[in-house]
Amino acid sequence: MENKKELRNWLDAHQLEHPLVIAGPCSAETEQQVLKIAHELKDSDVSYLRAGIWKPRTRPGNFEGVGAIGLKWLQRAKEETGLLTATEVANKAHVDLALEHDVDMLWIGARSTVSPFIVQEIADALKGTDKVVLVKNPVNPDLALWLGGIERLHSANINKLGVIHRGFSTYEKTKYRNIPEWQIAVELQSKFPDLPLICDPSHITGKRDMILDVSQTALDLNFDGLMIETHIDPDNAWSDAAQQVTPAALIQIMKDLKIRKVMDDEAEFNNKLTTLRTQIDVIDHQLIDTLGKRMKVADDIGHLKKSKNVAVLQNKRWNEILGKMILEGEGRGLSEEFVLRMFKAIHQESINHQEKIIKS
Ligand SMILES: C=C(O[C@@H]1C=C(C(=O)O)C=C[C@H]1O)C(=O)O
After folding, report:
1. Would 162 disulfide with which of 130, 138, 191, 196, CB 3.0-4.6 Å?
2. Is the CB of 298 within 6 Å of ligand 1?
3. Which residues, other chains included, contact 210 with Cβ-Cβ below 8 Å and sequence gap of 6+?
């Protein structure tokens, strides 16, 4: 699949002056709950009312969604408020029911995107549809798998496509529920600049008080829209209580978000930008040059180790370097996380160089 301008058509047709907003409860719970949320969101920036009807839960025994009856509640919400509707589908039966109930936007969840069999089944069931279909990233940070989902839908003649970035699972405990790994979304944008890209800060953060901050980052990275879980009584929600916000909080988030332009034509701004970018280019050149020099020293160490039959990995020395560099980084405004990532990558390259020498 190639990038093409038309990929944006369905989004442009909304003629919005703000990011696309998809909001509503994690799960549809009762008809009254769905209708109340819809009415509270009716006059906001929200275009699509979302609600989970079938909920894929990590472990059995939790609330797994109300099922098809919830689609009738969405239909009624649309009739009463004019909001378009959106829900997750995970197999052919879901697709058939969603289409029967005229759901306007369907998305494939992160746990389904990992399975090409499931995505293909959904693509076949949706063949040629004029509904909007969005693909959430797979739970593991695999851009090819994510794009593979889009390509399967595209091959089934579905033209109103988009992607949702909901973060990636990790075994490590972090401040996020699912770490954003923004560079994956940035890479996706550079491959498909016209494919609408939506951020789901609710699943990235898992916590309502971090949603504004992550939404702002997404907009600063040129995301086209936001999907935010919204509930009239978040603390008593039947699923994902901690990450849902009230409709009033959602409206406030929309007010607080700063929408930035992609570029500005003013000459003075552009001159300054060019000067600063020239500085970055020079520094990047120095970085590569310095790294090349460091690897040459690692090669010399490799030869030395080979001559005395000494192991490549030297944990004590390595941990000393890491400790020192974290401190030095701190003094220069570099986060521990960044210094660790960067030096782990450098260490791996150094090991690869020495391995090559020792094995030769
Ligand atoms: C270069 C060495 O080999 C390995 C690579 C290191 C590095 O690149 O800094 C540090 C320790 C070793 O694990 C060394 O032993 O000093």
Report:
1. 196
2. yes
3. 175, 176, 201
